[in-house]
């Protein structure tokens, strides 16, 4: 049987993997980024065991294509998610590091 | 060479196919549906040749799973998109009909 | 009422928009690209009014991230789709041009 | 610092969340299911720390829409993933249970 801590870790990671692959490719610009952030946060908040979620999309890497917008990509994400299972908790993050959207346990 | 009308039709359809497959599977509930609708509209608005977009997600078919939420699915969508290329326009829609998320030219 | 030609154009465009947003973000490498191409072709082939589909993912732009793989992105796609509605047909393509995954009617 | 076991759990969960949200909505039929399964397995295999992955899509719930196909949905998935970080391992699964695509640690 997994421990509550292992389950809290497991649940946090599901959400990071899920949100990344759900939203990558979504058209976005600095003007619309807030609505995409809010939608992602609202989606993650519904999922089981989530106690907190913060999503920030880096406007500075929203380079314009010829039609004046960008697409959500790994390099834009700064996400922190907290989960609780029983008395155990986990905080995990998604950050762009060394050319990779790195997901890691931070607490 | 395609006509402007054909291109307006083409551009409207791209957006319908795109939004459906981008957002299907997103966790949603009646409480968060408005933020998902807004995100979809903001994403579509950025795309080329779009002059108008309206997205409504049917709350009445957001059946709760054991964790109390639902996922965006074909049966929820009511979308209308208008495009303009040159002097030509097209309005197209996505509606759930006969068990299928039907996309069609309505003008 | 739309003409058969307009409907053939409409149907081709739906499939291009759909496949792009369905598969962008999928982990891929030159070794696995053929299975992703085949999956995309099999998915598009099922959709209504499609008579032909060819998907090629450009291996030369599958740059390795620190873990040795890449993700399906707009710059990889070369897709051609043909549709038929009544006696009318349409062939449309997705190509990466000028930094943009351009979709266009080619016949 | 997380333990190797926690990291193995974390990595397995990322892949489950990712594949679900990447592939949900993909057109599929019993005839094409094998190519979708293969594509998902090839995508997961590339991701870090994965040692084994098995994806099965339940053909018996691929109900035909009016155009004769279905879409990948939560009720179709039977997935098992194994990861290794250092000397620690984790096996996790995705199964449809009680109307929900349940992800859990099984070893």
Summarize the structure.
The first copy, chain A, is built from two helices and six strands; from the N terminus they run αβαβββββ. With 107 residues, the first copy, chain A, is an alpha+beta fold.
3D architecture notes:
4 copies of one chain form a homotetramer. Chain A has about 110 residues and is α+β, with helices and mostly antiparallel strands. Chain A has a single domain, classed as Pantoate--beta-alanine Ligase, Chain: A,domain 2. Chain A is built from 2 helices and 6 strands. The first copy, chain A, has a 4-stranded antiparallel beta sheet. In chain A, a hairpin with a 2-residue loop joins strand 4 (about 75-85) and strand 5. The longest helix of chain A has 20 residues, at about 5-25. The two termini of chain A are about 20 Å apart. In chain A, about 50% of the residues are buried. The mean pLDDT of chain A is about 95. Chains in contact: A-B, A-C, A-D, B-C, B-D, C-D. At the A-B interface, strand 1 and helix 2 of A face strand 1 and helix 2 of B.
Features:
homotetramer; 107 residues; alpha+beta; Pantoate--beta-alanine Ligase, Chain: A,domain 2; two-stranded antiparallel sheet; EC 4.1.2.25 (chains A, B, C, D); Dihydroneopterin aldolase (chains A, B, C, D); DHN_aldolase_MptD (chains A, B, C, D); dihydroneopterin aldolase activity (chains A, B, C, D)
CATH architecture of chain A: 2-Layer Sandwich
Name the chain pair whose interface involves the most residues: A-B, 22 and 22 residues
CATH topology of chain A: Pantoate--beta-alanine Ligase, Chain: A,domain 2
Structural class of chain A: alpha+beta
Order of helices and strands of chain A: HEHEEEEE
Classified in CATH, the superfamily of chain A is 7,8-dihydroneopterin aldolase (MptD)
* Largest sheet features of chain A: 4 strands, antiparallel
Low-confidence stretches of chain A: none
Oligomer: homotetramer
CATH class label of chain A: Alpha Beta
Q: How much helix is in the residues of chain A?
A: 25-40%
User: Which strands sit side by side, in order, in the main sheet of chain A?
Assistant: 2-4-5-6
Portion in strands of chain A: 25-35%
Radius of gyration of chain A: 15 Å
Distance N to C terminus of chain A: 22 Å
Tell me the number of helical segments of chain A per DSSP (H or I, 4 or more residues long). Answer: 2
């Amino acid at each position: 049987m997994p421990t509550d801590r292992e389950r809290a870790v497991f649940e946090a990671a599901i959400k990071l993997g899920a949100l990344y692959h759900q939203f990558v490719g979504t058209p976005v610009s600095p003007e619309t980024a807030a609505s995409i952030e809010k939608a992602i946060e609202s989606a993650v908040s519904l999922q089981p065991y989530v106690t907190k979620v913060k999503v920030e999309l880096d406007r500075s890497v929203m380079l314009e294509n010829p039609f004046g917008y960008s697409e959500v990509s790994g390099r834009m994400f700064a996400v922190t998610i907290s989960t609780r299972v029983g008395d155990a908790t986990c905080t995990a993050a998604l950050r762009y590091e060394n050319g990779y959207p790195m997901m890691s346990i931070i607490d």
